[in-house]
């Protein structure tokens, strides 16, 4: 589904945008104008389309109120989503949003830490996205175990910061970087099985990053 602007998103999915507006009033989306958040989420969809990804089992690490995953779910309707969130309050709000939008058959929440998800949901996903989840090494270590071979990790990234994702460190986790399509987003493909010792225990990837 080609949705290129926030106006188009609002026109086609008014219930979703209304729920995200409610989430912002509750403080689960940052104070920046909601249109900026939605446009940023649409950027993920544009990159995925450029990568030739339009379907599959997908996960969002630390979605908060559901960005970018719920916007991607709207623009790429053949995707199926698991939202991995450790905060009960956020999951409760997400469940309300998912129900009101009518997506209980294609979007679900998984309550717990990403490190635990990397063991319980290992090798299940074609795509993992993250938006402000954590530093690069932490994000890669938590995402790689979730991906199947050939799966894609897609994150937002400050322009010119690709050096934060060293090729050698990524390969330790079975990932290799893709050519960058948009300076605001970075992606990698899983080419090797992630070693069983990753992810490490809850909190370790943040305290002791691999690079």
List keywords for this structure.
single chain, about 210 residues, alpha/beta, 7-stranded mixed beta sheet, 9 helices, 7 strands, about 20% strand
Order of helices and strands: HHHEHEHEHEHEHEEH
User: Kindly, what is the distance between the CA atoms of the first and last residues, rounded to a whole number of angstroms?
Assistant: 38 Å
What is the general shape?
Answer: globular
Task: Quickly give the structural class.
Answer: alpha/beta
The percentage of residues in β strands lies in: 15-25%
Helix count, per DSSP? 9
Largest sheet: 7 strands, mixed
User: How many runs of DSSP E, i.e. beta strands?
Assistant: 7
Mean pLDDT: 96
> In order across it, which strands form the biggest sheet?
3-2-1-4-5-7-6
Q: How would you describe the oligomerization state of the chains in this entry? A: single chain
Helix content: 25-40%
Radius of gyration: 16 Å
Low-pLDDT residue spans: none
Topology:
Elements: H1 6-12, H2 14-25, H3 34-50, E1 55-61, H4 69-75, E2 78-85, H5 88-101, E3 107-111, H6 114-120, E4 125-130, H7 136-143, E5 147-156, H8 167-172, E6 175-177, E7 185-190, H9 204-207
Parallel strand pairs: 1-2, 1-4, 2-3, 4-5
Antiparallel strand pairs: 5-7, 6-7
Provide structural commentary.
With 211 residues, this protein is an alpha/beta fold. Helix content is 39%, strand content 21%. The chain contains nine helices and seven strands, in the order H-H-H-E-H-E-H-E-H-E-H-E-H-E-E-H. The protein has helices at residues 6-12, 14-25, 34-50, 69-75, 88-101, 114-120, 136-143, 167-172, 204-207, and strands at residues 55-61, 78-85, 107-111, 125-130, 147-156, 175-177, 185-190. It has a seven-stranded mixed sheet with strand order 3-2-1-4-5-7-6. Strand 4, helix 7 and strand 5 form a beta-alpha-beta unit. The protein is globular, with a radius of gyration of 16 Å. The termini are far apart. The model has no long low-confidence stretch (mean pLDDT 96).
